């Protein structure tokens, strides 16, 4: 390829390359030719070569060697060369390049050029890549151009001022008077630039809010003119008069009306007019309506106006465009707590969005549906959510299950409904629930004593039909081990009776132990359940002993340890087996805690001079205490000196683990020295309050 080919020919050759290596070769040869021509004194083809280099840059190849050529072309007196030079500066230079400082003086000169097109090139370049130093030096020139008579220049100067404010916020004060005066312009481009500039000034410096709130009536009037104006081919987009300017004005009104009653009142009527008269059948109209809704929700608007905004979002939910449905639900999610009743009116439409094919829309619909659950609609909403759970994508299943659990715990109309709902989730998505689900459900079942028979029957049926969902298997094994005697009786009013034998129950639990789908945790639940049944059945104790003995040599260390301990109960401590495997009445979350306070006073102390007080917290209980196997842990005392004459106390926390159903008793031995004599005494405390142990 000849080095002097035109841009179009170079593009044709590059596109015709069959491999990446061939394309790379063409680029390297052309770049070498361009670099050689840059070194020549003749500047006749400089703009032509820089144009080709910019195309090479667009393809992702290095073009940094053209930066100085950009500087030279910008300084040229020819418009054709300036245009390519400024374009190259915007593409090849940034504020980190030292070469960018070399064009500062050229830009300053061109900002005062007689041609508006040259001024426009300089303004666009400064707004695109101007560094903080350049902006500081050229800010007075931009402020001067904001007052120019040419609307074309004022529009670009306003956007350039926005860039300067973003780079150096403290220079915003320079543009504040000019920005306010630009609102009186009729040109839409100037108005658009002015609104963006005022928005930037208010966001960068909150002190400007007070000053620009005085402009709210002007902004309202501009917006009204746009809404009520007739057809204008220059600004019309799908039947909406300049939707870009409308959106910008609405965003500025949202900033000015936030947390301000006067400004909000001034724009309420306008917002109602826009919300009522804007056609939402086209994307342009939907964009204006969406910004209107956001403004209504963000300012101190009237309640009726907020309801109107929610209804607009409700209509968006019926739109065929998934993007519009998505942003609608995102907005409803933000306001559901403050405008719950208004959002509830669209509950049916929101629930229908759970069936959407788009995963992101489904996720938003799920989050919004969970937020809409209340005590009044818990049954109907839970029906829809459970249906969604059975068909939802795997990535949403965990979130859906967690949300259903939270809603059921908060609004459950009855304990049976609560248990049934959680069991339904475990059957449907037991592998996607959180780890705390199993102990939480066990605690719920334990507390519902009147439902023990119903629950154990239902879980047994679920276990024999499917052992894939491990969370369900674990709860079922625990419940069967705890209430297996109720299952064997076969009498349950709440559910169809089912005749179950001891062998059937043991077969189900052994299936869990032997299944390759069972996790080590599930096998531990099953083995413990079998061991518990040894105290609840009479004819198959030998079978249970045999099963436990087999797993004493299991490869799983945890399961092996359990089996060894249970074997020891059978062989060495059979008299303790019933108490150890007795019924669990209440679940202990953090163990049992009692506070032991020793109140000692006076000199020459004897046993009768010592009183021991146990202060049991109201929300902590002690269960399952077995006298022969009390576990006791004593924390450090609060001090090592007890003042005389009852002037102070020393406290020490004792953690107990007691597994007997009998009354709690404790013996405490005290050793102390009185007047040089060693004393020792033992007292028995058997007057613990019944809530602490029963």
UniProtKB/TrEMBL annotation:
Classification via InterPro entries: Adaptor_Complx_Large_Subunit, AP1_complex_gsu, ARM-like, ARM-type_fold, Clathrin/coatomer_adapt-like_N, Clathrin_a/b/g-adaptin_app_Ig, Clathrin_app_Ig-like_sf, GAE_dom
What are the UniProt keywords, alphabetically? Cytoplasmic vesicle, Golgi apparatus, Membrane, Protein transport, Transport
Q: Please state where this protein is localized.
A: Cytoplasmic vesicle membrane; Endomembrane system; Golgi apparatus
Q: Which PROSITE patterns match?
A: GAE
The segment(s) forming the GAE domain are 571-689
Q: How does it sit in the membrane?
A: Peripheral membrane protein
UniProt GO cellular component terms:
AP-1 adaptor complex
Instruction: Keyword check for Metal-binding, yes or no.
Output: no
What main location does UniProt list?
Answer: membrane
Q: Which GO terms describe its biological process?
A: intracellular protein transport; vesicle-mediated transport
**Which Pfam family name is an example for this entry?**
Alpha_adaptinC2
Gene3D superfamilies registered for this protein in UniProt: 2.60.40.1230, Leucine-rich Repeat Variant
Q: Does the keyword Protein transport apply?
A: yes
What family classification does the UniProt entry report for this protein?
A: Belongs to the adaptor complexes large subunit family.
Question: Which PANTHER family does its entry note?
Answer: ADAPTIN, ALPHA/GAMMA/EPSILON
Please state what the protein is called: AP-1 complex subunit gamma
């Amino acid at each position: 390829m000849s080095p002097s080919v035109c841009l179009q020919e170079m593009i044709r050759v590059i596109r015709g390359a069959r491999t990446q290596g061939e394309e790379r070769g063409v680029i390297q040869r052309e770049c070498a030719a361009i670099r050689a021509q840059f070194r020549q004194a003749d500047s006749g083809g400089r703009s032509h070569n820089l144009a080709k280099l910019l195309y090479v840059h667009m393809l992702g190849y290095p073009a940094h060697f053209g930066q100085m050529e950009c500087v030279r072309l910008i300084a040229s007196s020819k418009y054709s060369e300036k245009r390519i030079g400024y374009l190259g500066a915007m593409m090849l230079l940034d504020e980190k390049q030292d070469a960018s400082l070399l064009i500062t003086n050229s830009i300053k000169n061109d900002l005062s050029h007689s041609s508006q097109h040259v001024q426009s090139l300089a303004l666009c370049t400064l707004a695109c890549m101007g560094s903080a130093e350049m902006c500081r030096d050229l800010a007075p020139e931009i402020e001067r151009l904001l007052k120019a008579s040419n609307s074309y220049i004022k529009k670009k100067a306003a956007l350039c001022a926005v860039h300067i404010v973003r780079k150096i916020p403290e220079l915003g004060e320079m543009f504040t008077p000019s920005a306010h005066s630009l609102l009186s312009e009729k040109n839409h481009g100037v108005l658009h630039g002015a609104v963006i500039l005022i928005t930037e000034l208010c966001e960068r410096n909150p002190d400007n809010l007070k000053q620009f709130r005085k402009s709210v009536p002007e902004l309202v009037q501009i917006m009204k003119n746009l809404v009520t104006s007739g057809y204008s081919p220059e600004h019309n987009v799908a039947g909406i008069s300049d939707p870009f300017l409308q959106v910008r004005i609405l965003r500025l009104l949202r900033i000015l009306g936030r947390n301000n009653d006067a400004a909000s009142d001034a724009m309420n009527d306008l917002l109602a007019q826009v919300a009522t008269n804007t056609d939402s059948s086209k994307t342009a109209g939907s964009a204006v309506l969406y910004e209107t809704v956001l403004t209504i929700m963000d300012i101190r608007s009237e309640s009726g106006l907020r309801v109107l905004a929610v209804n607009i979002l409700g209509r968006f939910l019926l739109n065929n465009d998934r993007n519009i449905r998505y942003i609608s639900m995102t907005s409803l999610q933000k306001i559901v707590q403050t405008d719950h009743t208004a959002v509830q009116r669209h509950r049916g439409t929101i629930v229908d969005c759970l069936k959407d094919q788009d995963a992101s829309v489904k996720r938003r619909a799920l989050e919004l549906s969970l937020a809409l659950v209340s005590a009044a609609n818990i049954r109907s909403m839970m029906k829809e959510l459970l249906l969604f759970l059975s068909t939802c994508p795997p990535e949403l299943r965990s979130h859906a299950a967690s949300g259903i659990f939270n809603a059921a715990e908060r609004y459950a109309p009855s304990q049976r409904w609560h248990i049934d709902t959680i069991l339904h989730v475990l059957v449907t998505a037991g592998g996607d629930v959180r780890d705390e689900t199993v102990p939480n459900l066990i605690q719920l079942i334990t507390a519902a004593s009147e439902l023990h028979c119903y629950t154990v029957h239902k879980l047994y049926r679920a276990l024999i039909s499917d052992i894939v969902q491990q969370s369900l298997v674990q709860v079922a094994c625990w419940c069967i081990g705890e209430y297996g005697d109720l299952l064997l009786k076969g009498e349950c009013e709440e559910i169809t009776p089912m005749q179950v034998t001891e062998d059937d129950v043991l077969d189900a639990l052994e299936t869990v132990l032997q299944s390759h789908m069972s996790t080590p945790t599930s096998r531990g639940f099953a083995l413990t359940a079998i061991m518990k049944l040894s105290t609840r059945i009479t004819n198959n104790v030998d079978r249970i002993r045999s099963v436990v003995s087999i797993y004493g040599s299991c490869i799983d260390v945890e399961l092996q340890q359990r089996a060894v301990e249970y074997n020891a109960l059978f062989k060495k401590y059979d008299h303790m087996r019933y108490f150890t495997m007795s019924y669990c009445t209440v679940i202990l979350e953090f163990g049992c805690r009692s506070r032991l306070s020793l109140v000692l006073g006076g000199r020459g102390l004897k046993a009768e001079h010592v009183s021991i007080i146990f202060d049991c917290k109201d929300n902590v209980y002690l269960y399952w205490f077995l006298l022969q196997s009390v576990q006791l842990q004593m924390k450090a005392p609060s001090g090592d000196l007890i003042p005389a004459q009852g002037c102070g106390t020393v406290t020490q926390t004792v953690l107990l683990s007691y597994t007997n159903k009998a009354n709690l008793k404790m013996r405490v031995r005290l050793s102390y020295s009185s007047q040089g004599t060693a004393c020792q005494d033992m007292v028995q405390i058997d007057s613990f309050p019944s809530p602490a142990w029963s």
